[in-house]
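User: quick one, fold this
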Amino acid sequence: MGFFWKAISALLGERKKEPRESKEGLTEMESAVISPPHVKAKASDFPDEKDGSTIYNLVSRAYTRTAASLAKKMQDRRFMALTGVSLAVLITLLSYTSFFFYVRGVILAVVFILLAAASKLIQKFIPFVVGLDLCLFFTVLFGIAYHPFTGIVVGVASSALGSIARGQYQMDKVIFPLLGNVVVGMLLMIIPLTNIFYVGMAMALVYAVMMCIIFAMTIGISHNTATFFITSIAFNYWLFNNYASYFLMLMGVSG
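Assistant:
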């Protein structure tokens, strides 16, 4: 009788192991489907996390960490409020000293960089791509009022900061808009700066066309290309026609 129960227990024990073995076999099959044994990954397909396989990987990772840290700070309302109040107090105090005359350009650059960066946040609330930011506008104004290189710095800084604030952590997508600001700044070095409106609209057209070409080469032509071009030209027309001379006067230059 004892032998009989041992035989039954042995059979039941084997049956209990069958589902586990089947599950393990299924897991191995799924793993094989997901990672085919005949396909070998190339070393260039994955960045070397230890020391960086290329300079680009190193720069990209450094940018991602910096952008994420900066974006986290921007989401802290208390930090942003304290920063804004401190900046306003500093500018107010400096305005009562003769030192303000020498640092006015730097102060205006910082203020307009922050203002232009904040203007890029409007893209978060619109389902299609638009060109309703102030980056190009201030690039041209600073390029005319001070130096084209200053315009490039203001345009690049404001555009990059605005992209980070918007949650864009991919370096490639942040760099492309910067190229347009660099080209505009370089053109300001060679074209005659006669009339702020005509110069501004010429630069707006160059910038819009260049960005549309970049869109077409990277993501293809779509309705976003048209919406960006139309809104960018219309918005900059409104800015240069109504406010360019006022801002130049603020910078100490007649338009």
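User: anything notable?
Assistant: The radius of gyration is 29 Å.
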